[in-house]
Specification:
hydrolase, 10 helices, 36 strands, protease, Peptidase_S8/S53_dom_sf, S8pro/Inhibitor_I9_sf, Jelly Rolls
Length: about 650
């Protein structure tokens, strides 16, 4: 499996955690010192421990007495075994037993252990332990399917209405983490490999636990959606089943972690260029499971997960809350949400259906087709293409809270056309959570690794804010928005883009210095608050003009054959203005100017810039920066009609 760069971002969802502290028992020192002499290491200091204890945010899903012990970064296999020996010694001294269920050495270094709360108390004190997470349950999410909708927007069906995607996905391999598959079913016979991996909990409330061959149809159904002979989205794609759910559709975080580690070891032994990992289940928020998914993406796999059927914020669940994952929700036959969107960095292409496992399977099939067209595209490029070719603004968002409607993507997944090119500039808006309401509160948004930030803006419900800036943290650009005195909170909105050779820099000045760079966005910050009279200057595409007393930074980008132009539209008598980039051009920045009124929220929606005025008196102007990578056959031209 190829290595690619991957985006590291953080979703603003919190799992309840407890800091643990304890007191050493001096009577165990002799046996512990014997272990130190054996290992050739020093005893741990008697400082207050820093290890965290994490519990699932859904209390009913917790697996009591079973814990994942995760070691610090930089540790290796010998540290895992050493920590296990130390923990056994401490437990034995108190007459306690423990059972090691599994060890991990890929995305995480650590082990899964059954132990009492007394031994947990001791484990939190071990020197190499980063955190301990209580195991929790994960659950299958299911439903029926359809295919024609995938092709309708881009004319992918034949004249007689049969399903004809651009290709059959035959160059891609899909790893399905599910329950069981009836391999003899006519839809998937000969199309699914059932691996020898099996990590499932016992069924609840039964005396005789069923074998995999006796399970229900969830895994068979999902495999059929991916590559079934009649119902499959990517009928040539290979599917490998990794069993992590029992016959009741229930699994554990620890089992899913072991399954992901199995996939990594398999791909290390037999590399595959185009890999999709499908996770059609949902559980409570898990730092460990999210980290393992993030590591899969960093190693080049496209990871797709179910948002869950709980009509709740997907940020509360894993693996849906991991920003690296393509999280897929579902809508019903009248375009109403079956799973709520969520704020922050998660983007959710949604598919028409009545369950999110099945919707995720459709998305996995689309990803397999994209990868089969070009196996060199990265996971972030696959995600951008899926967003770009989705159907927008068809979902009924009335069931969403007001705070979620603005920042949740209104997209239904569709198959890219056969002639879709990888040379097109693709961008998306990444919204932060809304900040607090004090004047010192901030909001932060980030792009994935592999994306470039072409602009940064701030958006408010009342027009009161102090502006925005771009900072750098650990080598990654961050869009930071500032609330102002009297403000009701602010959003940070990063415009994140991909194209070959794209490089962006932030200049602590209102203009781009290098002649080959284009002004693709600009930021403005003022401690006194932002007035709505600052914008890129229409006559100079390399400079921004702003109000006095404000700090302005220019975002300057370069890519082979990149060209950018500025569009401006003024409305004298309306409180809403929309500026759209023409076909073939991509919106990279959305800003506003309104000398006579307060601008509420310049918002980039797809390829359009929407500006609203608080007073309703009109006079607002929308300002859009539109860019494209010019193809050899295209003449150099402005996007103006």
């Amino acid at each position: 499996m190829r290595r690619t760069s991957a985006w590291v971002g953080w979703v603003l969802c919190l799992c309840t955690y407890l800091s643990a502290s304890a007191q050493d028992y001096p009577d165990e020192d002799e046996i512990i010192l014997d272990l130190f002499r054996e290992d050739g290491t020093k005893p741990e200091p008697r400082a207050v421990p820093t290890a965290e204890f994490l519990k699932c945010n859904k209390a009913a899903w917790r697996v009591h007495g079973q814990y994942l012990v995760v070691l610090r970064q930089g540790t290796h296999g010998s540290h895992v075994q050493r920590t296990i020996r130390r923990l056994r010694a401490k437990a034995a001294r108190r007459g306690q037993l423990l059972e090691i269920l599994h060890t991990y050495s890929a995305a995480l270094h650590g082990f899964m252990v059954k132990m009492s709360s007394d031994v947990l108390h001791l484990a939190l004190k071990l020197p190499q332990v980063h955190y301990i997470e209580e195991d929790s349950s994960i659950f299958a999410q299911s439903a029926p399917w359809n295919l024609q909708r995938l092709l309708q927007p881009h004319g992918g069906s034949s004249e007689n209405g049969t399903y004809r995607p651009p290709n059959d996905g035959g160059m891609a391999l899909v790893y399905l983490l599910d329950g069981s598959v009836q391999s003899s079913h006519r839809e998937i016979e000969g199309r699914v490999l059932i691996t020898d991996f099996n990590s499932v909990p016992e069924e609840d409330g039964v005396r005789v636990h069923r074998q995999a061959s006796q399970c229900d149809s969830h895994g068979t159904h999902i495999a059929g959606v991916v590559s079934g002979s009649d119902s499959g989205v990517a009928r040539g794609a290979g599917v490998n089943l990794v069993r992590v759910l029992n016959c009741q559709g229930k699994g554990t975080v620890s089992g899913a972690l072991a399954g992901l580690e199995y996939i990594q070891s398999t791909l290390l032994a037999r590399p595959v260029d185009a890999v999709v990992v499908l996770l059609p289940f949902s559980g409570g928020f898990s730092r460990s499971l999210n980290a393992a998914c993030r590591d899969m993406v960093a190693k080049g796999a496209v990871v797709i997960a179910s948002a869950g059927n709980y009509r709740d914020d997907a940020c509360l669940y894993s693996p849906a809350s991991e920003p690296e994952v393509i999280t897929v929700g579902a809508v019903n036959s009248v375009d109403q949400l079956m799973s709520q969107g969520a704020g922050g960095h998660q983007l959710r292409p949604l598919h028409r259906s009545s369950g999110t496992s099945q919707a995720a399977a459709h998305a996995a099939g689309i990803a397999a087709v994209i990868l089969s067209s070009n196996q060199n595209v990265s996971p972030v490029q696959v995600m951008q293409m899926m967003l770009h070719y989705s159907i927008s603004h068809t979902i009924n968002f009335l069931s969403l809270p007001d705070s979620h409607r603005l920042i949740s993507p209104n997209l239904v997944a569709a198959m890219p056309p056969a002639n879709s090119a990888n040379e097109e500039l693709l961008c998306r808006s990444v919204w932060s959570k809304r900040s607090g309401v004090t004047s010192s509160d901030q909001a932060v948004s980030r792009c994935r690794l592999g994306e470039e930030m072409m602009s940064c803006s701030s958006s408010t419900p009342d027009g009161v804010h102090a502006g925005e800036t771009i900072s750098e943290s650990s080598g990654q650009m961050e869009c930071v928005a500032f609330n102002a005195l009297g403000g009701k909170g602010v959003y940070a909105v990063a415009r994140c883009c991909v194209i070959g050779g794209l490089q962006c820099q932030v200049h602590a000045s209102p203009e781009c210095v290098a002649t080959q760079h284009h002004l693709t966005g600009c930021t403005l910050w003022s401690a006194a608050g932002i007035s709505a009279d600052s914008r890129p200057h229409g006559s100079d595409r390399r400079r921004r003009v702003g109000s006095s007393g404000a700090t302005s930074h220019a975002v300057c980008c370069h890519a082979p054959s990149l060209e950018c132009h500025l569009l401006e539209k003024i409305s004298a008598d309306k409180d809403q203005v929309e500026v759209s980039c023409p076909s073939g051009w991509t919106l990279t920045d959305c800003s506003a100017v309104s000398p006579g009124s307060v601008v509420l929220a310049p918002v980039a929606k797809g390829n359009s810039c929407h500006v609203g005025s608080a007073s309703g008196a009109g006079g607002s102007a929308g300002v859009a920066v539109c860019c494209r990578v010019r193809q050899p056959e295209q003449r150099r031209a402005s996007p103006h009609p």
